[in-house]
Design a protein that fits this description.
mainly alpha, disordered N terminus, two-stranded antiparallel ribbon, binds 2-acetamido-2-deoxy-beta-D-glucopyranose, 10 strands, di-copper center containing domain from catechol oxidase, binds copper (II) ion, two-stranded parallel sheet, globular
């Protein structure tokens, strides 16, 4: 037997032999991410364990992944969202004519500040505190007894429709959108990005079903970020169904455990901020989370109109706190960036004294007060 045919005969076995001992890179990334999370968690628990005032182990809000909630807890969260959508808001209709509810107050804050709080020195602090205000409103105004859940999209990076948050059951946040065939690409305008971004149609595109179907829940504002805009440049009253278009393509390219490891291993705040939006290989996990859900989530301005927004941003904030938790002293005192999205138009750098704006939700809060998850107004931990 010739040597070459001998080797060729072994090839099928070689692939078997190789497959066995080689670790799946995503499994290795999962292990690393868990180790980073463990270190963060330990730091927070150690810091608060002997405290009697401020943020203590008695009053800390323990935020969990959606899958870890009981069915009853998921329903409570869903119902608290619907409750805020049924309460009158405080945003003046002279400013945002389409705003109708307490739920819409949060959308309106985000609309008004879209040009300031993305790809800027405000991004992490604004979204962190917006979540705190949202969770507090659910608790204080709607009697919610739980905490803000998060959506760890690395759990189902191959196909987000498998995540229980999208099961469509009465303990979920609804389904993917109904499949609409023959759709064109959507051109979306991202604040701070000159060129429109082209989004190909994915697996849905229509109305969601389940507990957030049109009979139970409506999106009132927008579209603003893509054509055709709603009335009054998208600020008018435009009640319609919640739409989604889950994209396994985006998810598989950008929401893997290894993409999270890459972010957590950035060494300074500048790199952390830059890479959460855009990596050397494509989209960062922040826009990818939105774009993988699609439709309403493609419209940055009104993206809090889909309750999944808060679960995605809780996960973003979780990654930020885990990143901070690797070097708590060094990573809670820093600032980065200016006061406008993508620094368009050019604006001053933020400092620790710069007030982070919240629109009609509340007066601006100095950035230094929003740097930590267990100091100032905040008191929460990600389990
Ligand atoms: C996400 O991770 C995969 C696998 O590690 C990598 O190939 C891909 O380039 C990453 N995506 C981005 C946008 O960085
Ligand atoms: C803003 O920060 C950047 C980066 O740290 C720095 O290069 C620049 O000089 C700062 N601008 C002002 C006006 O201080
Ligand atoms: Cu935002």
């Amino acid at each position: 037997m010739k040597l070459s045919s001998f080797i060729a005969g072994l090839l099928p076995f070689a692939s078997l032999i190789l497959a066995a001992p080689v670790t799946d890179p995503e499994q290795a990334a999962i292990d690393k991410n868990k180790e980073y999370a463990r270190k963060y968690h330990q730091y927070i628990e150690d810091t608060i364990k002997d405290r009697n005032t401020g943020c203590t182990k008695e009053n800390i809000r323990r935020r969990k992944e959606w899958s870890k909630l009981t069915s009853a807890e998921r329903k409570d969260y869903l119902n608290a969202n619907l409750c805020l959508a049924s309460k009158p808001g405080i945003t003046p209709q002279s400013v945002i004519p389409g705003t109708r509810s307490r739920f819409d107050d949060f959308v309106s804050s985000h609309i008004q500040l879209t040009g300031n709080v993305h790809a800027s020195g405000f991004f992490l602090a604004y979204h962190r505190h917006l979540l705190w205000l949202w969770e507090t409103a659910l608790i204080e105004e709607c009697g919610y007894q739980g905490t803000q859940p998060y959506w760890d999209w690395t759990l189902h990076w191959q196909d987000q429709s498998q995540h229980p948050v999208f099961s469509g059951g009465d303990d979920s946040l609804g389904t993917n959108g109904a499949y609409l065939p023959d759709r064109d690409n959507l051109q979306i305008n991202l604040p701070g990005v000159d060129e429109p971004v082209i989004i190909p149609p994915a697996t849905g595109g229509g109305c969601v079903s389940g507990p957030l179907s049109e009979e139970n829940f409506k999106v009132n504002l927008g579209p603003i970020g893509y054509a055709p805009q709603g009335p009054d440049n998208g600020l008018g009253f435009n009640p319609r169904c919640l739409t989604r278009d889950l994209s396994p393509t985006i998810s598989q390219q950008t929401l893997r455990p290894s993409n999270v490891t890459f972010l957590l291993e950035q060494s300074c705040l500048t790199e952390f901020n830059e890479n959460l939006d855009k990596t050397p290989n494509g989209l960062g996990v922040h826009p990818a989370g939105h774009l993988s859900v699609g439709m309403v989530e493609l419209d940055v301005f009104i993206s809090p109109s889909d309750p999944i927004f808060y679960l995605h941003h809780a996960n973003m904030d979780r990654l930020f706190t885990i990143w901070q938790g690797q070097d708590q002293e060094g990573r809670t005192g820093g600032v980065w960036g200016t006061q406008t999205t993508g620094n368009v138009p050019p604006s001053a750098n933020v400092t620790l004294d710069t007030p982070v704006p919240f629109g009609y939700l509340k007066p601006g809060v100095p950035l230094r007060e929003l740097q930590s998850s267990i100091e100032g107004p905040h008191c929460y931990i990600y389990e």
